[in-house]
Write a structure and sequence with these properties.
- This protein is an all-beta fold.
- The chain has 2 domains: 3-144, no CATH class; 159-251, Immunoglobulin-like.
- The protein has 1 helix and 19 strands.
- Strands 3, 4, 7, 8, 12, 14, 15, 17, 18 and 19 form a 10-stranded mixed sheet that branches. A 6-stranded mixed sheet has the order 1-2-10-9-5-6, with no helix packed on it. It has a 3-stranded antiparallel sheet with strand order 11-13-16, with no helix packed on it.
- The longest helix has 4 residues, at 82-85.
Amino acid sequence: MRRLFKTFSITFGGLTLWLIILITISGCDIPRDNPFDPKAYNYGIQNPIEPELPVLQITSFHSLQWFPFEDIYSMEILVSGASAETADSADLVYTDTVFFALNRSGSIWRQSLESSDFASENLFDLIGVQLYAYLYYGTNIVVATEGACLYRIIEDIPETVRPTGGELAPPAPELQWEPAEALFNFTYTLKINHYAASGFITEVAAIENIPRDSTSYQYSDSLAAGSYYWTIAIVDIYNNISRSREAAFTVAP
């Protein structure tokens, strides 16, 4: 892997912005007329000074919801790293003229985008397309991340078996699901949430890295009496996720 850097000076009404760009040559096959591509005709002079740059991660999330009864697809954007913490704002760069504002969440920046956000684009059409994030510091510094791609959208949805439909379950329930048939490496992530009468939802447990050949999980702690729902999700090595519908159950007093 080879990294190249370029510094741009851009003037808007007398205000000069400095843009530092880091390029990683790998992965996505992008057009050779892209100014971020070292092999493009319009790529500039290399800068030997390597800044500490934030990291852009792009993943997909697929789930089924009850109302309306349909599939939901989204592209999840996350920018992290020490330098991301001090940025004043951040954008995902889709094209030269289309930017999506990212939201600060603690020390990271994130956003969730659906197909409708891209006008005529379908999220599946964005697989393999290289995107960037711009982070803004003060009034005259802009830093671009390395390019990142959406690698996969998981179509298969795991299906819960029991408990479901609000049925009674013991305080330490065994949670069962149908096996997924995906052809790539993955693990399961199981989550249990408590649903209070007030409508407040609290995550009780999140069990990750359950082996792909598993079809059940024995919860080892004891749940308090109340209403709960659980989900089971496929998670691939790129952290793309496909999650089941919520399955409700009740623990009696």
